[in-house]
Design goal:
- It is globular, with a radius of gyration of 20 Å.
- Strands 6-5-4-3-2-1-9-10-11 form a 9-stranded mixed sheet.
- It is an alpha/beta fold.
Length: about 325
């Protein structure tokens, strides 16, 4: 990562840490170490879903692969504020992604700006297909701290094997447009992370990606292991280099996660996840909201977080776990 990008990220995080937030975050970690089975802290992180619709059809994505059972829609600003306002005093960061492509929501920058007013560190993750010069200027102007652009190949033929319907050149141009908007507006943020999800079909391009991402203008390069949801051809998708895989291949040709089930899942202690319609999911892997805790348009977000129902579900995870926990990389 460039020195300037590191400075901007540190400044953004430092801005977010008030005394109340630091105290809450410290308590979350102490409760985790003590393995407390009741949550008495507040969320330090909010993950919202600006859009449960997408412009690509990535096969291992729940939405792109046609396995999302929720209605596709855009989050409205009222829903976002219902999620944000009751929690803002304790939130260190807000992530604007869950399922779908966040930049398809025309109110995205307004929501980011609202979080920025509360001195909350903000991040979006995008496939980069809609990062036009105009949208990039709006994103920079919103105060966005970090943008992750997923580019899983250095040639169109390899890229589109996973990013079905996508253009590699559009994603590359998107990074350039963000960098150009920062310069034109005299801003150092958002820091630009180029992300590469490693599969067997693209692992041979890792070195090229690291080199090219710098040329495209990225401040940071991240290699991410793939989460495999479907069983068909799963063994053919995991990289040959086990370093880049979260699974191991068994003798019968099936794959199993390398990491064992985490009976002390940390995310349940500090992160609230809100879908586009306001439903509060148990966690970021509860992509179909099967373990719905409530809806921020109907109940105060803090009341949902502190509810008996929420604690009961957390205890189930911290006990034997739920089915969705079995393939979680967290």
């Amino acid at each position: 990562m460039s020195v300037m990008a590191k400075i901007q990220l540190v400044v953004g995080l430092a801005r977010a840490f008030t005394l109340a937030r630091m105290a809450n975050s410290a308590r979350i970690r102490l409760c985790s170490l003590a393995r407390m089975r009741r949550v008495t802290t507040r969320p330090e992180s909010l993950s919202v879903e600006p859009a449960s619709v997408c412009n690509l059809r990535c096969p291992e994505c729940t939405l792109g692969g046609g396995r999302l059972q929720r209605q596709g829609q855009l989050m409205n600003t009222a829903t976002f504020e219902n999620a944000l306002q009751p929690l803002a005093s304790w939130l260190v960061n807000c992530q604007f992604f869950l399922q779908g492509e966040p930049t398809l929501n025309p109110n995205l920058c307004q929501m980011i700006a609202k979080a920025h007013q509360h001195r909350i560190f903000t991040t979006i993750s995008t496939n980069g297909q809609t990062l036009t010069p105009d949208i990039c200027r709006e994103l920079v102007g919103s105060g966005l701290d970090q943008i992750i652009v997923s580019i899983d190949g250095t040639t169109q033929a390899v890229y589109e094997q996973y990013r079905v319907g996508g253009s590699l050149q559009k994603a590359i141009d998107g990074i350039g447009n963000i960098v150009r908007a920062r310069r034109e507006l005299g801003r150092g943020n958002p820091a630009v992370t180029a992300q590469f999800i490693v599969f067997r079909h693209n692992e041979h391009q890792i070195a090229d990606f690291k080199r090219l991402a710098r040329q495209w203008g990225a401040d940071r390069v991240v290699l991410k292991t793939a989460q495999i949801e479907t069983s068909a051809n799963a063994a053919e998708m995991i990289p040959q280099n086990s370093k880049y895989s979260r699974y191991r291949l068994t003798t019968d040709g099936t794959i199993v996660p390398k990491r064992q089930f985490n009976a002390n899942c940390f995310r349940l202690r500090g992160t609230m996840v809100v879908a586009a319609n306001g439903d509060v999911a148990l966690c970021c892997y509860d992509k179909n909201c099967r373990h719905r805790l409530g809806n921020v348009n109907q109940t105060d977000a803090l009341s949902i977080w502190n509810s008996v129902e929420a604690d009961n579900l957390r205890r189930q995870v911290w006990g034997k776990g739920l089915e969705i926990c079995r393939n979680c990389g967290g």
